[in-house]
Amino acid sequence: MEHKVVDHLFRHHYGKMVAILTRFFGLSYIETIEDAVQDTFIKATSQWRTKIPDNPEAWLNRVAKNRTIDILRSIQAEKNRNFTITTGASSLQIDELFLDHEVADSQLRMIFVASHPSLHPNEQIAFALKTISGFSTKEIAAALLTKEETIVKRLTRAKKSIRENNIQFKYPPPEAIHERMVRVMEVIYLTFNEGFHSTNTDKLVKEDLCGEAIRLCQLLLKKEQFRTGSLYALFALLCFHMSRLESKISIDNQIVSLKNQDRTKWYFPLVRMGNSAMNKAVEYDDTSVYHYEAAIASEHLNAKTFADTNWGNISNWYEQLYAFQPTIFTLLNQAIVQLQLNDFEKTLQLLKSIEVTDLGQRGYLYYGCYAEYYMKIGEKDLSISFLDKALAETTNSLERDFLINKRSGLIK
């Protein structure tokens, strides 16, 4: 039980604790702070076996603060210097930094540190996922479809850049906000997708990560200088997807396809929040991929049944999305849509234009689409062979079960 509590708190509070302590001690101590926070959660796992504190969050904050101070004193002692704490927030006591509004402010500052132009875009995303959302290097590698050792190098380079460029723990100047916000939104989008399409081997949906992405979006939207049509569209998209979370997994822990989802489980208060955000999004002049993806998600939510889905509209949105920003994943999604429209010629044309290796860890979706194509045109054996290829590419246990069940249905 205590491990579940610690895991939950880690996901919800790791980034907050790192941001607050960084604001107090300074970015030059970021690695020490991360080590101290990590040590704190390890200590919690050990000490909470018999009894969980009445206020676990306060316990974590206190222990992390004291651990950071202890480590820094040790470092300074080794250098034969007196230990002093320097901070740009000297008028605030460290305990006051743990107040809700200060936590939010510290995390927003950390988001903009992560998106600083001195950091390479790949380093920005890796640093943000690690520092703000508490991803492990393995999870970041999975989310970014790359090797774990590559992520370690990116994180090392990011922290080196922060030191060498003397990056400050503060907001960017007004003229730099737009450029930095583009990277910030990409990080939030990736965080949500890691939860919604989890690469974890045992669990498809990580609600904590989805909730964290929405929370970060809300933090930004609370400040007028960060509001844009793109940010509102991103928030709408996340609300639309989040509304379907409960229906994605059955009570016996199996994936439920969109066609078979119980639409009464869709959480429509979130849909209404998304609709409201989209109304705000179109009041601004800027346009982004989030506008198009939110429009596509909205089409699914507007359909009372799977049969009522307006696939023609969805196809048009995907065409506009591809024209706005062409990606291989958009081509794959368009192929899936053409299957629903029974346009098999166009489906095959789209699939042949895709190089499966470019899909990385999502390659199983390509083979799954081919399997569906062959099943629809009556080539059962070919469909089974492509399901086998999809299975060979799948690491998620729930995805594997889903594909195995699909394959079994063809053999019967």
What keywords describe this structure?
19 helices; DNA binding; 412 residues; 67% helix; mainly alpha; Serine Threonine Protein Phosphatase 5, Tetratricopeptide repeat; single chain; sigma factor activity
Report the β-strand fraction as a percent range: under 5%
Q: Cα distance, first to last residue? A: 42 Å
Q: How large, in whole angstroms, is the Cα Rg?
A: 23 Å
What about the largest sheet? none
Report the count of strand segments: 0
Given the C-alpha coordinates, what overall shape results? globular
Q: Output the number of helix runs.
A: 19
Which structural class matches the secondary elements? mainly alpha
**Unreliable residue stretches:** 85-92
Share of helix, binned: 55-70%
Oligomer: single chain
Mean pLDDT level: 85
**H-E order:** HHHHHHHHHHHHHHHHHHH
Pfam families: DUF6596, Sigma70_r2, Sigma70_r4_2
InterPro entries: DUF6596, RNA_pol_sigma-70_dom, RNA_pol_sigma70_r2, RNA_pol_sigma70_r4_t2, RNA_pol_sigma_r2, RNA_pol_sigma_r3/r4-like, TPR-like_helical_dom_sf, WH-like_DNA-bd_sf
GO molecular function: DNA binding; sigma factor activity
Question: TL;DR of this structure?
Answer:
Pfam families: DUF6596, Sigma70_r2, Sigma70_r4_2. The protein is mostly helical and 412 residues long. Helix content is 67%, strand content 0%.
